[in-house]
User: Fold this.
Amino acid sequence: MSIRFYFRVLCTLLLALLAAWLCVALHTPLPWLIGPMLGTAFASMFRLRTESSTPLRNGGQAIIGTAVGLYFTPAMAALVAGLWWAIALGVVLALGLGMLFGAALHRWHAHRMPGLSRATTYFSSAIGGASEMTLLAERFQGRADLVASAHSVRLMLVTLVVPFAMQYSGWHGQDFAASGGAREVVLPGLALLGLAVCAGAWVMARLGRPNPWFLGALVVAMGLTVAGVDLSAMPKPLSNAAQLVIGVSLGVRFTPAFVHTAPRWLVSVAVATLGLIAVCSAFAALLAWCVGLPAGTMILAMAPGGVAEMAITAKVLQLGAPIVTAFHVCRLVAVLLLLEPLYLWIYSKPLQATSPK
Assistant:
């Protein structure tokens, strides 16, 4: 990496910090995530040379995974396990909505974009696994740029709309999952916890698992908490810093080239994403009534966003982070395991597959 690259990373972080402070002053929800995300996105669209550091983003995901894992007390783990049927319904809904979303995208754009393949629209519409879906689309001769742009728009919109809706609806501060676990920051314990979660992330990466830094840290912290090993709580400034670098990693995608790739495509993805949010929220409200949990918790659990972003939202707004995380992790695993076989089964074109580049 050149000195110029590190200088751009530093300038981007300073811009993100200013945006976060502004959102704190304005009392917006998730100021340390939304501020950097929007500030970096606007700067990128106006041709400023913003840059995201992969090691910093990975570290941010590990911190959030650890913070969420510390919520998984034995009682909370038992509650999550008892919701297996609701989690399964969430997976089925996500897969079904993704397929309908993909069919709609193809119907809207096939006549305007000659050569638009089913692979492009199908993998663009998947709820979860943004980077993995881009690779799968490329494997089946889909347009990776359109798939990546669709997932970027979906993540941006969900990360904006859902937290604002949660905060201004009054569905926050109802955290029934905050009891138990470590309550105080203990520096030696925090150091041991950091080493343990880094080891877990490394193992996940070696195994080729998706989101290894988030999931590896989550599994280790969750295992320790369930076992009653309370090493340390997570310092709030560290959690804020993690949100900042994750926000930057989302915002830098919105370059001028990204915006001008296919405007109608981006608009249709945005409209469809709002529809997904509405349908998932309605289903979540019904599910909340069935299971007797706060509606805000279930709406976050069913939201068509990314696992790290929704885990942050649940943690910051105090809306049952373990339950929200469990729903999103299970959905992510199901999407990654089932979407490719379903594509081959529905469209019956296994010969389209090529070796990954």
In short: Residues 21 and 27 are 10 Å apart (CA to CA). The chain has one domain: 3-352. Residues 350-357 have pLDDT under 50 and may be disordered.
